[in-house]
Design brief:
single chain; 171 residues; mainly alpha; 6 helices; 68% helix; elongated
Length: 171
């Protein structure tokens, strides 16, 4: 049976899983984003209930905030080694093969988020260069899309820190 887990308590307390730079930054941004999404959604529901009109333009903000939340949450999960993974087969291996697989997985994640940084950056630049406007509010679209490569770069930094900790733990 395949098992999905966040992380067990015994590995979460291991010193190699503790990042040097605290994840409070990501936690604060995540809390602020969640509060903002809740306020926008609540205001939209109240206005729709009272006036039968909705704030359709708030979808632009909500989608952007959800992307920010996903990437900030990913960075925090990578930093504290609490990302979701399948471990049924890997847990049956010895320490050295498990460490090698972890190194491979973290390196693959660095490549993937690096691609998001590069391609998302090019996309945001194109939207800036061609002055693309958002459909709902008419604001410059790059204001919404710039967060994807910036926060993917944060994920890359957190993954690099995780990779160093895994390599040190395997030595």
């Amino acid at each position: 049976m395949l098992e999905w887990r966040m992380d067990s308590q015994d590995t979460a307390a291991a010193p190699e899983n503790t990042p040097r730079i605290t994840i409070r930054f990501e936690q604060a941004i995540g809390a602020a984003v969640m509060a903002t999404i809740a306020c926008i959604t609540f205001a939209n529901v109240v206005v729709r209930y009272l006036s039968n009109v909705s704030f359709a333009f708030t979808e632009e903000y909500s989608v952007t905030l959800m992307v920010i939340m996903a990437l900030v949450g990913s960075a925090a999960a990578f930093a504290s080694d609490r990302h979701i993974r399948m471990t049924f087969f890997v847990d049956k291996l010895g320490r050295r093969p498990r460490n090698r697989i972890e190194i491979f997985c973290v390196a693959a994640s660095i490549v993937m988020f690096g691609a998001i940084v590069w391609l998302g950056g090019r996309h945001a630049w194109d939207e800036y260069r061609f002055e693309v406007l958002s459909p709902g509010l008419g604001t410059p679209q790059w204001i919404y899309t710039i967060w994807m490569p910036l926060l993917a770069a944060l994920c890359v930094l957190r993954l690099c820190g995780r990779l160093l900790r895994v390599i040190r733990a395997g030595s």
